[in-house]
């Protein structure tokens, strides 16, 4: 077992992931502290007084040489001290951490509700491919795939909050001092929006995968061997078809990590997306940096996970050639 | 009909293992028949070869015996009785029980027929109705039966870890596991090299005889069928045109199509040139009235276009559907002997010395040396992996990583086409194996053929058109094909376009890389005839790469046998084939199936 | 049920693509000539904020009292213009990169694909936001960012198609006769890529519209008072209970446009089944028989 193909591929892929993360850090750093020229002035805009400028310069260490800046910034983040907000001086981690939890809640609920549903519908549509249930759901998926995420959110608000029905609050405001969990009703619309947004992708990939497996020679052979329908469907069809689907789940989560920003903004949901936009509005650079890094890291890690899963599920990767006869 | 038929087959047999009556398979939702009407019968232990070319419907018949048809088709009539039980009227549940137990299938491509994520053991266990009865001992016994390693470790292996031959043996094991009454084999040895093929065929034959299993072997390969089967049924355009014992059908064929087919098959034992069958089989939707073969038949007359000829028992046990069968059978065979030419008198066109080639760090060619004379053909023969295609690509200039000396007409030939002069590139032309991939689907035939012309001798479009039409005419394609697209042509026609494309610039050396392997036998023979004629007319030097020794015999004057990147034998084709010196040549000769009964 | 399903399928296959195209085309045309049809200037105040539809403002007024209909008619140009530019540029550059990687392979392929992998590993919307917030909301920046977002995706798709095409023997033939690389790419490979190219154009256009409208929604478009569908949706949210049309109208238009283009693109992928015609009727000259044997249904030849 000297040259295990899986290990070398996995190692390469992980290395690439780490490299990408590093590249992300560099890009974020450059964008926020280098690109604007005088970052301090960019932050303050018209409110620039010499004292404030000096304060910001000190906080961001803008007078140090570039590499030192980068290193102190990066080490700060890695050791859990990402600096202080330029707006009110609170620790960035205190601002961001609760929001991370809120966004995570959103994503978790979305996955739990929407993923199994999308996958099941995809399987059903593939098994009854060409019939009404398939064309019906596929058309809906096509329409949903086209709509921008915020449009889906607004349509839901129009339908369920304001003009048609008034079931849910249009804005997911949390009364101060309470947490999201204590006001579950504000979760409904954002979760629904995110679910509708990621449904088409998962549905279509699942359906395509199952259809491809259904048409494969080994499924035909199993049928001709007399394998029963139950075993045929689950062991032969689904086991093969769902392997790529697992990969797609990871990718969908990654996609959601980006989409969550817009959806949170639509509903004013107190998550990282909303936090990022607020920070952008006031140019609170440390907060912007941390949130962007977090989102990017999640994205990169999920992509990496997806690739590793694909490798693991491929039996050609995990077993060597038999001694030929 | 089947009652007399039964009598014909086995006058004292108690019952037939398989009885097919007027089987009809059509396109779902229409009247078009893929299989128009097929009737046959088998006694236990008998192997019947179902022979036909692409479009004959033979695979469809095979699958229908399991009451199965591919998407878009429908079994619309007839009866299939196995051991007296009607298979076509079984309920879904009963059918599941019957498949794999009463009747089973050995698939064509074992690699894709095995589930890639399930272990071999698991897939074997699935064959048994009662999973608990499939003990490990029983499974190991099954492995022994098909000459696979009978170890628990093998049961735990995945399909991709096995070689092609091993995968096919697993397929055979799955089919025999329940000792079915009938086994359908869908060309199970295509894609295997000759030695593996011959071993697999041996295994199949002995299993069928030992366990009294009736088998149908669907194939396009007459030689394999001749070596394996007891009886042969010949199919053409959805119907059986002839049926009889192997000896009868191969040595005294009664139907004109059978005769023509036999004449088209290259055989090592017969020193005759192949003759192609002009034209092509009709589309199922456009069958002519009467006998479907009549448009291409040299014996056709007015009676043939009336109704489908009824069955005639031309001798005991041999039936044929031809109105002129009795007259035809006294016709002597029209096979022509091969003309033995001598190459040495002519000048040397290509001289190869110490050709070496690499794929990355692996050396695939280890020092080849041979010569090709003008006007003669050298066949490069070997199994897959021997390096013959790499050799062809090196000479064509498609493989950069090569060393050695190649002289064309005394002039040094650089390794890659981009380094070669215009002059040289024009004189050496290459024809590819796969007719479905060698023409750009987005260009018309005329544009593809004219490509080289535009490159080497840019002329006006009128002149180019004239040259294209002339080139197409040389390969017997009408001028109208110049404006067609590749998907509108058949495989044989496309291959002829590829030949026209090579000829239009007047080459002196033609490199043909397995150009007939993807074609039906009768079409293959047409291409072989064409190439032979062109070689003589234009005094072309030719390198013909093939894995089929019999084809090599038909087309070449000299043959080079390759093994693992070396030429192990080189000489005149009659000498090498009659008295081979190298082990590899002897092995290839021994394992190539031949007609057991040759025409004297 | 099957009859319903069959007719639904027929409708979908044949007409859906055409309908999608028609709808998309109408909206694009409307957006382009819209300004000519607008009854009012999109900047003028015609009534109180969030008035319901009336004779002088068919869709009511927005948060500033401006005519919603007029702003709607003006509001598409920037979105569509930027989307078109970004789509064309992105697909063009992506296709070029994809073909180069797919055909040339080797180290060029490796380097470019690694770079694109890294580019694709970034969450695109988030980084677009980052750059826009830092450098300011300029149209050229938006177009560049969206183009940059498209390139890796298109390159990847085109590369796999080009790779498959490059493996085919007719490309080997072109090399064997010595055709230049440039000619092989443009005359042999490119024509085989038109189908996936059309599909990518459609998909990317839909995505561009969604992205750019989203940026407008977030308020990252240049001029806060300019009419823009995305911006309109956001700024008029506070008045949803008073005049929902200020939000509903641009939402509706965006929805119809994106669905239309997506349906059309989807129909494109389905129609790639070319119907083969029957084989050529041959008149053979058999080499040995020396006589002309007619084939096919040539009754007259008998």
Q: Can you describe what's shown?
A:
The complex is a heterotrimer of chains A (325), B (600) and C (302). Chain A is mainly α. Chain A has helices at 5-34, 39-44, 50-60, 66-78, 92-127, 132-146, 149-162, 185-214, 217-224, 229-267, 272-282, 285-312, 315-318. Chain C is mostly helical and 302 residues long. Chain C contains eleven helices and two strands, in the order αααααααααααββ. Chain C has helices at 2-37, 68-74, 77-104, 106-120, 124-135, 139-167, 169-176, 181-189, 194-217, 229-235, 245-270, and strands at 283-285, 292-294. The model of chain C is unreliable at 271-302 (pLDDT under 50). The radius of gyration of chain C is 26 Å and the shape is elongated. In chain C, strands 1-2 form a two-stranded antiparallel sheet. Chains A and C meet through helix 1, helix 6, helix 7, helix 10 and helix 11 of A and helix 1, helix 4, helix 5, helix 9 and helix 11 of C.
Dominant shape of chain A? flat
Beta-strand percent range of chain A: under 5%
Number of helices of chain A: 13
Number of strands of chain A: 0
Q: Tally the beta strands of chain C.
A: 2
Distance between the termini of chain A: 20 Å
What is the distance, rounded to the nearest whole angstrom, between the alpha carbons of the first and last residues of chain C? 52 Å
What attributes does this structure have?
heterotrimer; B: 600 residues; alpha/beta; Rossmann fold; 3 domains; C: 11 helices; elongated
Topology:
The complex is a heterotrimer of chains A (325), B (600) and C (302).
Chain A: H1 5-34, H2 39-44, H3 50-60, H4 66-78, H5 92-127, H6 132-146, H7 149-162, H8 185-214, H9 217-224, H10 229-267, H11 272-282, H12 285-312, H13 315-318
Chain B: H1 2-9, E1 18-27, E2 33-42, E3 47-51, H2 58-64, E4 73-82, E5 85-86, H3 92-98, E6 103-106, H4 110-113, H5 120-125, H6 136-145, H7 152-155, H8 164-176, E7 182-186, H9 194-210, E8 214-219, H10 222-228, E9 231-236, E10 239-245, H11 246-251, H12 256-264, E11 272-273, E12 312-315, E13 318-320, H13 325-328, E14 336-337, E15 348-359, E16 362-373, E17 377-381, H14 388-396, E18 402-408, E19 411-412, H15 422-427, E20 428-431, H16 445-456, H17 461-474, H18 491-503, E21 509-513, H19 521-538, E22 541-546, H20 549-555, E23 558-563, E24 566-572, H21 573-578, H22 583-591
Parallel strand pairs in B: 3-8, 3-9, 6-7, 7-8, 17-22, 17-23, 20-21, 21-22
Antiparallel strand pairs in B: 1-2, 1-4, 4-5, 9-10, 10-13, 11-14, 12-13, 15-16, 15-18, 18-19, 23-24
Helix pairs in contact in B: 8-9, 16-17, 16-18, 17-18, 18-19
Chain C: H1 2-37, H2 68-74, H3 77-104, H4 106-120, H5 124-135, H6 139-167, H7 169-176, H8 181-189, H9 194-217, H10 229-235, H11 245-270, E1 283-285, E2 292-294
């Amino acid at each position: 077992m000297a040259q295990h193909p899986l290990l070398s591929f996995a190692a390469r892929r992980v290395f690439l992931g780490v490299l990408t993360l590093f590249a992300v850090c560099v890009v974020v750093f450059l964008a926020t502290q280098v690109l604007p020229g005088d970052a301090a002035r960019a932050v303050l805009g018209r409110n620039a007084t010499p004292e404030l400028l000096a304060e910001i310069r000190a906080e961001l260490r803008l007078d140090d040489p570039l590499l030192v800046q980068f290193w102190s910034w990066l080490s700060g983040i890695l050791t859990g001290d990402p600096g202080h907000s330029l707006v009110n001086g609170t620790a960035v981690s205190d601002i961001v951490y609760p929001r991370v939890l809120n966004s995570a809640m959103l994503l978790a609920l979305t996955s739990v509700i929407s993923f199994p549903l999308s996958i099941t519908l995809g399987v059903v549509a593939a098994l009854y491919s060409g019939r009404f249930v398939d064309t019906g759901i596929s058309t809906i998926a096509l329409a949903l795939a086209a709509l921008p995420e915020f449009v889906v959110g607004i349509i839901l608000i129009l339908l369920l909050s304001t003009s048609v029905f008034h079931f849910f609050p249009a804005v997911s405001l949390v009364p101060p001092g309470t947490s999201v969990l204590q006001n579950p009703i504000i979760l409904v619309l954002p979760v629904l929006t995110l679910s509708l947004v990621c449904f088409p992708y998962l549905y279509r990939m699942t359906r395509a995968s199952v259809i491809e497996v259904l048409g494969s020679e080994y499924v035909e052979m199993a049928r001709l061997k007399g394998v029963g329908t139950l075993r045929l469907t689950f062991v032969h069809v689904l086991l093969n078809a769902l392997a790529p689907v697992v990969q797609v789940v990871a990718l969908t989560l990654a996609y959601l990590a980006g989409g969550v920003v817009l959806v949170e903004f639509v509903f004013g949901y107190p998550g990282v997306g909303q936090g990022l936009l607020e920070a952008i509005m006031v140019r609170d650079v440390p907060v912007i940096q941390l949130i962007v890094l977090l989102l990017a890291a999640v994205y990169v890690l999920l992509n990496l996970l997806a690739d590793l899963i694909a490798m693991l599920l491929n039996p050609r990767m995990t077993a060597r050639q038999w001694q030929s006869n | 009909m089947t009652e007399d038929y039964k009598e014909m087959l086995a006058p004292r047999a108690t019952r037939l293992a398989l009885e097919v009556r007027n089987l009809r398979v059509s396109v779902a939702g229409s009247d078009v028949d893929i299989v128009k009407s097929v009737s046959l019968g088998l006694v236990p232990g008998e192997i019947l070869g179902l022979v036909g070319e692409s479009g004959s419907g033979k695979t469809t018949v095979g699958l229908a015996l399991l009451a199965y048809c591919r998407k878009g088709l429908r079994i619309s009539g007839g009866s299939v009785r196995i051991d007296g039980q009607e298979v076509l009227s079984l309920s879904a549940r009963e059918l599941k029980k019957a498949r794999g137990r009463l009747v089973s299938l050995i698939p064509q491509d074992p690699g894709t027929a095995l589930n890639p994520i399930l272990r071999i053991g698991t897939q074997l266990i699935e064959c048994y109705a009662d999973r608990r009865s499939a003990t490990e001992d029983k499974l190991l016994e099954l492995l022994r039966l098909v000459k696979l390693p009978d170890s628990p470790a093998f049961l735990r292996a995945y399909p991709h870890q096995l070689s092609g031959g091993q995968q096919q043996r697993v397929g055979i094991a799955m089919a025999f596991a329940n000792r079915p009454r009938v086994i359908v084999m869908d060309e199970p040895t295509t894609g295997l090299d000759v030695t593996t093929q011959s071993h697999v065929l041996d295994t199949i034959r002995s299993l069928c005889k030992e366990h009294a299993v009736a088998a149908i072997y669907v194939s396009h390969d007459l030689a394999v069928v001749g070596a394996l089967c007891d009886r042969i049924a010949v199919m053409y355009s959805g119907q059986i045109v002839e049926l009889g014992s192997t000896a009868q059908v191969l040595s005294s064929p009664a139907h004109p199509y059978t005769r023509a087919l036999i004449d088209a098959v290259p055989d090592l034992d017969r020193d005759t040139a192949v003759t192609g069958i002009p034209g092509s089989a009709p589309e199922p939707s456009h069958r002519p009235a009467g006998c479907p073969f009549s448009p291409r038949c040299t014996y056709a007359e007015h009676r043939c276009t009336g109704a489908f000829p009824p069955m005639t028992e031309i001798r005991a046990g041999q039936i044929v559907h031809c109105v002129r069968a009795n007259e035809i059978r006294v016709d002597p065979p029209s096979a022509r002997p091969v003309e033995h030419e001598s190459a040495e008198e002519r000048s040397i066109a290509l001289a190869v010395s110490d050709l070496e080639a690499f794929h990355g760090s692996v050396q695939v060619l280890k020092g080849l040396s041979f010569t090709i004379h003008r006007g003669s053909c050298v066949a490069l023969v070997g199994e897959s992996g021997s390096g013959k295609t790499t050799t062809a690509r090196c000479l064509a200039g498609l493989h950069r990583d090569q060393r050695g000396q190649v002289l064309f007409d005394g002039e040094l030939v650089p390794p890659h086409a981009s380094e070669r002069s215009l002059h040289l590139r024009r004189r050496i032309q290459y024809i590819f194996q796969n007719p479905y991939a060698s023409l750009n689907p987005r260009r018309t035939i005329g544009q593809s053929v004219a490509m080289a012309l535009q490159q080497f001798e840019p002329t006006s479009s009128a002149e180019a058109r004239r040259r294209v039409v002339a080139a197409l005419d040389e390969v017997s394609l009408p001028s109208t094909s110049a404006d067609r697209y590749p998907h509108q042509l058949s495989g044989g026609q496309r291959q002829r376009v590829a030949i026209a494309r090579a000829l239009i610039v007047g080459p002196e050396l033609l490199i043909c890389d397995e150009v007939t392997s993807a074609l039906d036998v009768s079409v293959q023979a047409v291409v072989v005839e064409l190439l032979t004629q062109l070689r003589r007319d234009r005094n072309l030097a030719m390198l013909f790469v093939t894995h089929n020794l019999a084809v090599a015999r038909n087309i070449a004057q000299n043959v080079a046998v390759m093994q693992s990147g070396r030429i192990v034998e080189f000489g005149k084709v009659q000498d090498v084939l009659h008295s081979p010196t190298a082990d590899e040549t002897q092995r290839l000769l021994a394992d190539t199936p031949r007609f057991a009964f040759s025409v004297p | 049920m099957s009859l319903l399903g069959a007719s639904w399928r027929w409708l979908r296959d044949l007409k859906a693509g055409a309908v999608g195209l028609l709808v998309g085309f109408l909206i694009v045309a409307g957006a382009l000539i819209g300004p000519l049809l607008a009854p009012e200037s999109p900047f003028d105040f015609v009534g109180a904020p969030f008035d319901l539809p009336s004779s002088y403002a068919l869709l009511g007024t927005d948060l500033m009292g401006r005519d919603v209909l007029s702003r709607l008619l003006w509001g598409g140009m920037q979105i569509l213009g930027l989307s078109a530019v970004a789509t064309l540029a992105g697909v063009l550059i992506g296709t070029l990169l994809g073909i180069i990687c797919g055909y040339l392979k080797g180290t060029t392929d490796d380097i470019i694909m690694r770079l694109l992998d890294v580019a694709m590993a970034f969450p695109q919307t988030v980084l677009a936001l980052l750059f826009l917030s830092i450098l300011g909301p300029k149209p050229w920046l938006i177009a560049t960012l969206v183009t940059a977002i498209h390139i890796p995706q298109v390159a990847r798709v085109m590369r796999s198609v080009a790779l498959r095409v490059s493996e085919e023997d007719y490309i080997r033939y072109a090399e064997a006769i010595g055709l230049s690389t440039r000619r092989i790419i443009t005359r042999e490979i490119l024509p085989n890529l038109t189908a996936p190219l059309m599909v990518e154009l459609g998909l990317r256009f839909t995505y561009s519209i969604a992205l750019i409208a989203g940026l407008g929604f977030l308020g990252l478009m240049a001029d806060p008072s300019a009419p823009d569908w995305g911006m309109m949706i956001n700024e008029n949210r506070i008045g949803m209970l008073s005049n929902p049309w200020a939000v509903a109208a641009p939402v509706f238009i965006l929805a119809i446009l994106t669905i239309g283009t997506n349906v059309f693109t989807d129909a494109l992928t389905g129609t790639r089944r070319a119907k083969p015609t029957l084989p050529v009727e041959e008149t053979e000259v058999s080499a040995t028989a020396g006589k002309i044997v007619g084939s096919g249904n040539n009754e007259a030849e008998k």
